[in-house]
Amino acid sequence: MGSLKFIVSVFLIFLVWLSIGLVKFDYLFNCFGPDLEPIGVSDAKIRAARKLFTRTPLIGEPIYFVKKTHCYNGWAGSSDASSVVVISQAVMDEFSIEELAGLIGHEIAHLENPLSNREHWEVDLRGAELTTKELMIKKLEKMAAVYTDIYDKNMIFGLPALRARLIVRDFRERLEKIKTFAK
Ligand SMILES: [Zn+2]
């Protein structure tokens, strides 16, 4: 009977561990949600980041929104009438103006050519052209750093750490490509 109790206890501890990992996973990586707020080009930080661009994008100025999420991400979308860049609140709060410029450069590069099936690093490459190589490197290094931090803090929870690790690897690969190919 002693060993059965032991096995049940271990199993319950495993379930608790798995549940905490799943809750953390959802909290850290589920960026979906409708909480968008327009911020516009009048936002000082957006305006400062846009001033760092060295080339004029092939599209008109997009409308900017902030998404109330702690995910570190940006999104781009367009309709016939307008194009939209969405930036997460965490990025707005924690990224420097230079890092933000790199992120906006990437999103505008998506908007210039929304239907192309370029690889993601090639979108970075165009973003580096619009801003500078240095700014795109700063943005990619920042992304790798924030997800490395998430990895470090979640190492004991398994799943979220694994996901963070894969994201860090993706950003580091993109970083190497930009260091190699951007002018
Ligand atoms: Zn992208």
From TrEMBL:
One of its GO terms (molecular function) is metal ion binding. InterPro entries: Peptidase_M48. Pfam families: Peptidase_M48. Binds 1 zinc ion per subunit. Keywords: Hydrolase, Metal-binding, Metalloprotease, Protease, Zinc. It comes from the Bacteria. Residues 63-113 form the Peptidase M48 domain. One of its GO terms (biological process) is proteolysis. Its cofactor is Zn(2+). Belongs to the peptidase M48 family. This is Peptidase M48 domain-containing protein.
